[in-house]
Structure formats: C-alpha cells, structure tokens
Amino acid sequence: MRRLIVSPKSISGDIINITDKEDIVYISVVLRMKKGDKLLVSDGAGKVWDTCMESLLRDRIELRILSEQPILKLENTRVTLFQGLPKGSKMDEIVRKATELGVYKIVPVGTGRSISGSVNMVSTKLERWRRIAKEASKQSMRIRVPDVSGLMGFEDVSAELNLAGFDLVLVPYELEQERTLKQALRESIASILHNVEKPLNIAVFIGPEGGFESTEIDMLVDEGAVSVTLGDTILRTETAGPAAIAMILYELS
Fold first, then answer.
1. How far is it, in rounded angstroms, from Cα 200 to Cα 80?
2. Helix, strand, coil shares of the chain as percentages rounded to 5?
3. CATH code for position 205
C-alpha cells in the first residue's frame, strides 16, 4: 500500500487534513485516489495509521483514520552523517541518497576546506534539504524522516559528540591504509551489543571536496573517532557518505 508522511499538526481527532499542494497532487493525480480508497499515513516519527479518503476538495483532502498500526521496533542502528559542506548542489544528492539508504540524521558541517559561499547559503537551502529528505522518505517507503540540522561549525563538533553519546565515531580518511570500516565495526561494536534494547548510535564524518585538513582529523581522533579506509579508490564527497552508510547498515543488519 502507498504511504504518505504528514505533519502531526495536520491530525485532528480521526481526521487528517492534507493541505500541502505537493501532497494533494500526489494523492489525486499520481495515486488517482477516490473517496473510500485506502492509504498508509505516517507522522514521520514512527506512528502509522490505516486511512481512507473522506473527501477531495481543490485545496484540501481529508483522510479518515481507520486504525493505528503497532509502533514499529526502533532501528537497530542509527547512523548520523556529519557531512563537510560541499560546493554547489551536491548536498541535495547527498541528502537524497543518504535518506534512501536509511540515515538517521544529517548534519552539515563547515570545515576548513568548505567554500565560504556554500557556507553562507546554508540558511536558504536548509528547508530545501528537509523537503528532499521528506520526498526521499516517501519514495523509499520509510516510516521516519531523517532530521537535517542546521549548519555546525567544526569547532562545535566536540560538544556535539559528547552530548549525543555516540557508541562509535568513524572517519573515512584517504590516508588511512590499514583499518577498514568493516574491521572498525567488528572491533568496536562487540562490546556494545550486550545492550540489545538500545539502538547502536554511530556517527560518520565525511569531508568536503579535498577532504578534511590534517588538524581536523587529529581533533576527531583525539575525541575518540576511528580513522578508516573505504577501499582502494578515492570517492567523491557526494559518494563517500552514502557508501559508508550502506556499508555500516549492511554489516550490522
């Protein structure tokens, strides 16, 4: 069954009011739904309802909640991508692919090699990235929409790592030649898996074009990050993050 992600604010009692123009087009034109047709609806945070179309108006669609599905089990692994801010529109593709692959959260990071023009444009692009994450979640049938946070300066990374309490922090680095991502996972995760009720909380740091500066790598390692290699080839910044996410979730699934 097709699935739609809505804002919790659109839910009133047993009625879900759809007013977003794109969602209205998706339901009425793409899905060609009629009164009585059923649709799965999620609030983007884990709750899912079976609904049916109650009414179709020009500027609003009403869906009636038939039943609430059991709350799904939390993800076994939550991967947060700290992405060094790239040039141009590359972040669009990173958000889209990372969402499709199952990322939990995306944090744009201003680094020493991030272009100042890209950093200055983050505030105008943030809503676009969040919309892309929502669209990609809908396309890939995800229940949860990953959070795309505001820009973080590299100087704030240390505090974020401490506050979030990550079980493992990984830094794919082109100069790392010995420890693979698989090895790092197998070496570090075994001691954490005894607590089966708590999802693994993993952070991955990806540099912008040109990678991280050596001082930034040193700072991350000093904070407990593990430097790893993703293989023999050098990946573009827009490829490295999704590749690392796919490797992690495959290895730990």
1. 11
2. 35, 25, 35
3. 3.40.1280.10
